[in-house]
Automatic annotation (TrEMBL):
One of its GO terms (biological process) is epigenetic regulation of gene expression. This is Deacetylase. Residues 18-289 form the Histone deacetylase domain. SUPFAM superfamilies: Arginase/deacetylase. Keywords: Hydrolase. Pfam families: Hist_deacetyl. One of its GO terms (molecular function) is histone deacetylase activity. InterPro entries: HDAC_classIV (IPR044150), HDACs (IPR000286), His_deacetylse_dom (IPR023801), His_deacetylse_dom_sf (IPR037138), Ureohydrolase_dom_sf (IPR023696).
């Protein structure tokens, strides 16, 4: 059964006009249910993740600053969010959603988190709509509990997974692969194990050819026993922040490629949502929904 993390806490309201599309966290499960891709029993509601699993990745003093609302104005500005207790609580629930989805992936081959993909959070700070790093927290949870020994992070958001790269820069148990817009945020890139910078306006055919070569090579080279997939849909041509040129079909083919490689190699995979900032919310929802449709089609 495809298991999907979702919680009402994912939908914390933001000030009117904020460019982060919080609506998608409600609209996506509604769409998946409406079209029959999933049923109510596919969803599970995460709790707040135990702090010890957060501080296994992030510095304790940074977590305390989040909880006590003592970040500086500059630190808050870098996160992109107006900080609040509810927003921090939301993030801590998202972390548990990804951890629990990973446990379901070990059981079923694949599992998803409607939120997550918070790859811009570093050990000691948040950036770019990310307060805590669910990719890193999940990877460290699996490693700490001997549930995995070699993890491949496949980050296909349009923005480099700079926080994830920093967290695992000295840990060879996690291989970080980020394929992103070369000239997009962040301007200062961290060093992933493999970074593939893409030119502006790259289209489906060229993008998919590059991804195909690297995915097949990495599965042979890294030999992971678990994969974490950051499936941001800000690669779309329609995306306000993306600058790449993929169609919705091209984005779908991207996800299909990742899932098929994982399944063929019998490597469990946890998928977290990532970014998506197209003007029309329907385009964001359709592109994200394709990821869930494919997981059902390929695995179940």
């Amino acid at each position: 059964m495809l298991k999907i993390a979702w919680s009402p806490k994912y939908c914390h309201p933001l000030p009117k006009g904020h460019r982060f599309p919080m609506d998608k966290y409600n609209l996506l499960p509604e769409q998946l249910l409406y079209e029959g891709t999933v049923k109510d029993e596919n969803f599970f509601s995460p709790d707040a993740l135990e702090e010890r699993w957060i501080t296994n990745t992030h510095q304790r003093d940074y977590l305390e600053k989040l909880k006590n609302q003592t970040l500086t104005k500059s630190e808050i500005r870098k996160t992109g969010f107006p900080l609040s207790d509810a927003l921090v609580e939301r993030e801590i629930h998202i972390m548990h959603g990804s951890v629990k989805a990973a446990l379901y992936a070990l059981e079923y081959g694949v599992a998803m988190n409607i939120a997550g993909g918070t790859h811009h959070a570093f050990t000691d700070r948040g950036e770019g709509f990310c307060l805590l790093n669910d990719i890193a927290i999940t990877a460290n949870y699996l490693l700490e509990n001997d549930l995995s020994h070699k993890i491949l992070v496949v980050d296909l958001d349009v923005h480099q997974g700079n926080g994830t790269a920093e967290i695992f820069q000295n840990d060879n148990r996690v291989f970080t692969f980020s394929m992103h817009g070369a000239s997009n945020y962040p301007m200062h890139k961290e060093k992933s194990d493999l970074d593939v910078g893409l030119p502006d306006k790259i289209e489906d055919k060229a993008y998919l050819k590059i991804l195909d070569v690297h995915l097949k090579s990495l599965l042979q080279k890294v030999e992971p026993d678990f994969m974490i997939f950051q499936s941001g849909v800000d690669v779309l041509e329609s995306d306000k922040l993306g600058r790449l040129g993929l169609s919705i079909q091209g984005c779908r083919e991207r996800d299909k490629m990742v899932f098929e490689v994982a399944q063929e190699n019998q490597t469990p995979i946890m998928c977290c949502m990532g970014g998506g900032y197209s003007e029309r919310i329907s385009q964001i929802i359709d592109a994200h929904a394709n990821t869930y449709r494919l997981a059902q089609e390929i695995y179940f």
